[in-house]
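In response to reviewer comment 3 from the previous cycle, which asked for concrete evidence that the modeling workflow produces usable outputs, we include below a single protein chain processed end to end. The sequence was submitted unchanged, and the resulting structure tokens are shown without manual editing.
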Amino acid sequence: MSEIIVFREDRFELNVNFDGETVWLTQADLVRLFDKDQSVISRHINNIFRDNEVDEKSNMQKMHIANSDKPVKFYSLDIVLAVGYRTNSAKAIKFRQWATKILKSYMIQGYALNKERLQHQKLEELTQTIQLIKQGLDNNTLSIAEAKGFVEIVSDYARSWALLQGYDEQSLDEVVQTKEQKFILDYDEAKEAIAELKKVLIAKGEATELFGREKADEFKGNLLNIYQSFGGEELLPSVEQKAANLLYYIIKGHPFNDGNKRIGAYLFVLFLHKNGILHQPNGEPKINDNALASLALLVATSAPEQKEIIIKLVMNMLYEGDL
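The workflow returned the following structure tokens.
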């Protein structure tokens, strides 16, 4: 119990212990509040516990207080209200209204603190993303187009962070994920799509026969992962979540002997297109070619423990076109 607050009603005044979640009163406080004999208050409390109306363990605490040689019992707001109903006290109604106001105020303050923490978390995610990109730049020789793509990734993610902050301040429309799936990517269709891509790339001299050749059944497992469910509920309920995880699984899982980044990016685009969320309302792609190539490289060079931030990055880039 970290704070003492004062309840006042007409000329009546009572010091109340407050811990942020509920208020606590002693039995002596209840006697004063309801203007009843201690035996009456004690009987009501015993009956409340006997009838299991309120859980005794979580609603009663023993505390040492000044001028007392033994612990004193404190009772939560639930007990106070239950006793108030039994005594039919008008003062109990006033106390309930006052306590509710106090608790509501704390909840609002707590929300404000949580909001600051969440905003700080978003800033940390952005910092991690920039660090990932720096690692990519340090460890790889990038073309001008790839470097431009990295800049676009940072720019898009920073805008998404600002938009999410705006939503938290109630200044934006709600960010909605796409849960209606128009298309389910099954193994056979995916294999056909990869075969067509392979044919085109071989004709251009940009692939060999090793391109798209599977390692055991790893690719099939990647596809099954994005459609997993538990207790009848999908673990990845939105199209954006499935798309982001599909891209990650293929690129990081290396289910093919060659072409994992290109296949991952290709199926990512195919999945978004067939689900109707590849483009923004103005017809522009949510993730352009340069950004997609750089994103694939970023996924490939990321550490396994960075999976969560990578998935969030991809989803934020997809959210951008929906706002």
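The mean pLDDT is 76. We consider this sufficient to address the reviewer's concern, and the full set will be provided in the supplementary archive.
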